[in-house]
Amino acid sequence: NLPDPSKPKLKVLHISDIHIDSQYLPGSEAECSEPECCRPPKDQEEIVLGNVNVSAPKWGHIGHCDIPYATLENMLQHISKTHSDIDYIVVSGDLESHADWDYTKEGHAETIKNISSVPIDNFALHNVPARFNMTWLYGSMADNWKTWIPSNQLETVKYMGCYMTPLYKGLRLISLNNALGDAVNFFLYINQTDPDGSMSWFEKQLHDAEVAGDKVHIVAHIPGGSSEALEGWATNYYNIINRYENTVMAQFFGHTHSEEYYLTFENINNGRSRPTSVIYSAPSVTTYSEYNPAYRIYTVDGNYDGSSYQLLDFEEWYLNLTTQGNAVDPVWEQLYSSVLEEYSLPSLRPSDWNNLLIHFMNYGKDDMLFKKYIKNYYRRSNMNCDEACFRGHLCSIRQAHHSESLCDDIPLRIKRNNKRKNKTKYTAQTNFNHLPKNIDDLKKYILDAIPKDACTL
After folding, report:
1. What is the pLDDT of residue 51?
2. Is residue 62 part of a domain?
3. Where are the beta strands (DSSP E) in 22-162?
4. Where, in this chain's numbering, is Zn(2+) 1 bound (predicted)?
5. Containing domain of residue 402, as a range?
6. 434 is known to lie in a ligand binding site
7. Chain centroid to CA 135
8. pLDDT tens digit string along 349-359?
9. What are 424-441's pLDDT values in tens digits?
10. Is 255 annotated to bind ligand?
11. pLDDT tens-digit series, residues 331-387
12. Rounded to 5 degrees, what are φ and ψ at 182?
């Protein structure tokens, strides 16, 4: 049930994927042939500011560039001036630039004094030789976070980089180190189901919260449907969330750099079953490689006896680098003030987000709401999305783990004659099992079944 709107509210700032490039150099080449641009070239004999085709702007460039520290600083100054009512802040990972060839232990240890960063995603487990041990990183985290993490959680941080902390009466925050579920963390191929006991620990934290009658917000980094999430980890996380769907009120993720959401379902391989939760992937601060910098602020059912602590709404702000890239004093703009209003959602319940997905399925890529979704996904206008792109986005919403069966009812889009009265509507219960599985047979089936004067592929 939705809470009484007159009850107190909380404001939660969500920042993700900052990716600061300490070598960002305004005026350097922004469209280079290297993996990371907007920085001095590797060839020291090259004239840094000469022969530049596309000059890196002062505040950032949309492309293979991360952001300068000045942009992060400017964003935080803007947030401080604009949002005086923030109650707590979550940062869902990735502070360092994508130039991972520059990473060092010393650099990470220094960065940890402010926030966590990932050493090329390879977090060794405790069952590998000691020379790969992560004590240097986890220990640095524990030392620098001890003023705001409960003392009884410090050993967990030192062991696996996870912790639980009470935020308010009846609300706990779990920070889950899901670099222990990262597909490019090669140590996990020894054990991806419960690395270092992290998933067992996670389940116990939720069990303890359930027994106490508390609600939980989760902050992690890589969504389970990402290509960089191991399926063993993703399915275990998914099943745990389904078990504790009445306890987990928010899941704050990042990693994708885009604004998107993922649904979990009661049957983890059936996207037509009951939706159980929503995973939010917040927009990135970095521009890498197609995005304007952005941040998000949630409105949450507030701190009072019996609060549900569920998410009620959120707004987003962004920096339009097309117009503000070289501004003296850049202006951060509101992308939208209410996601409820933006997508005509009654609430942020899983069923309402699922109905939005069904709306997309019914009305196609040219629908106004889907066009808004694509614009907000990138924080940019005039982004094209063809039929393959359209289906990919819809399938992504369904895939909080890697299962193609979650997308088997997302059909080939057909351009219909608007004069036809009986248009097909897809619902959560629509069954497409009668359709041929082979793509050539499916095309023939469609061509044979549809009147040629009514539709075109």
Report:
1. 82
2. yes
3. 88-91
4. 17, 19, 94, 257
5. 9-41+52-407
6. no
7. 28
8. 999 999 999 99
9. 444 444 454 555 656 566
10. yes
11. 999 999 999 999 999 999 999 999 999 999 999 999 999 999 999 999 999 899 999
12. -85, 125
